[in-house]
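fyi for ur records
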Amino acid sequence: MTVQEWIDGYIRAWEERDAEAAAELFTEDAEYRDDPFAGPHFGRDGVRSYWSGVTATQSNVHVRFGDAIVADDGRHAAAEFWVNMLNGGAEVTLTGIVYLRFAADGLCEELRETWNFAQGRLDPPAGWGS
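which gave:
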């Protein structure tokens, strides 16, 4: 699986709020960090549990990723994301960056993200994502 194929799968999983599809993108021993000050969600079970909870209040989810920056080894990547959605019925925008480390088979071994959340539907600025 290429980095872009992985990102495309992540987008589909998020837009469809499919915790099982999200979990399948990760190794059995993956670390998923959605908060730098909290412990990670471990393995596919941790990803599945986290995603089930966090996407439960989301609807009309539209996810965009910018061009990924991929290290020469193909195992490390980073990318911006921009999400417009309804969360608990309110229109919101979520934007951030993910750092990804991949296993040889293309599944993600480690995800670290940082994000910002704003009320309302906001569009990315000119030049975003490239």
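The domain at 3-119 is CATH 3.10.450.50 (Nuclear Transport Factor 2; Chain: A,). thats all i got for now
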